[in-house]
Amino acid sequence: MKVKLYALPGSHPCAAVEVALRLKSIDYELVNLLPLTQLVIGPLRYGGNTVPGLRIDGERLAGSRTIMRRLDTLAPEPPLLPPLSDAVARARVLEAERWGDEVLQSVPRRILDAVWLRLPACMESYAGDAKLPLPRALIRPAVPLTAKLMARRNHADDDKVKADLAALPAQLDHIDAWIADGVLGGEQPNAADLQIGSSIRLLMTIGDVRPMIESRPAQSLTRWFEPQAGEAPAGTLPAEWLPAPAAA
């Protein structure tokens, strides 16, 4: 069986799938793409225009939730969902995973787009030591344009980013409540832990946002991940965009 993961360096849903592959001891080849090239490469290689994408021999899969379900059939242990016999627990984890994918996942993406528009130089730090398709010296001059195109694709205008920052404390309360109820944060991570934890880890790299998360139960969901490459220094976003405690 040949497994190939197509990812963007720094992508949080890609990180969630990588952790799932390692938990299940599935050997895989990682193929790093450059930002926006998934729009062209994805349909040809794995049948989608977003990341992550996965090829298992000739089978093509796109999207973290689709991939997680397939990994559970490919390698049932450890499971990423509660058993079918516990329908209530399974439904709660699936709902948390859906929320993490459809609601939370776009939040760090848009906030980072706003950061990179103001400080394009920090975008490169999110690639860490990843092996890229082109030398970094060739990529670097295109970073400001890439930041603008990514912000446009992700609809990361100022009003949406301000709304994301205003809504984030309530979203973190929601995650903390799931942890208190045992839906998240168990000894073994489930699919929702990985989906949501990857977003929390990425948010923690944003200096203006980190104080909103530190010391919360939600921060504990990052423990299944290696440290996130990249750093967006505090003071990059306008202070008036931030909820009062974070701004202070």
Structure summary:
The protein has 11 helices and 4 strands; from the N terminus they run βαβαββααααααααα. It has helices spanning 12-23, 38-45, 64-74, 87-104, 106-118, 136-139, 143-153, 158-181, 191-203, 210-213, 244-247, and strands at 3-7, 29-32, 53-56, 59-62. A hairpin with a 2-residue loop joins β3 and β4 (59-62).
Assigned CATH architecture of the largest domain: Up-down Bundle
**What profile does the largest beta sheet have?**
4 strands, mixed
| Outline | globular
One letter per element, helices H and strands E, the order comes to EHEHEEHHHHHHHHH
Structural class label: alpha+beta
- As for the number of domains, it is 2
**Computed Rg:** 18 Å
Please give the order of strands in the largest beta sheet. 2-1-3-4
Strands, total number: 4
Helix content: 40-55%
CATH topology of the largest domain, what is it called? Glutathione S-transferase Yfyf (Class Pi), Chain A, domain 2
Quickly count the helices: 11
Strand fraction band?
5-15%
Mean pLDDT metric: 97
Query: What is the highest CATH level, the class of the largest domain?
Result: Mainly Alpha
Low-confidence stretches: none
Q: What distance separates the N and C termini? A: 53 Å
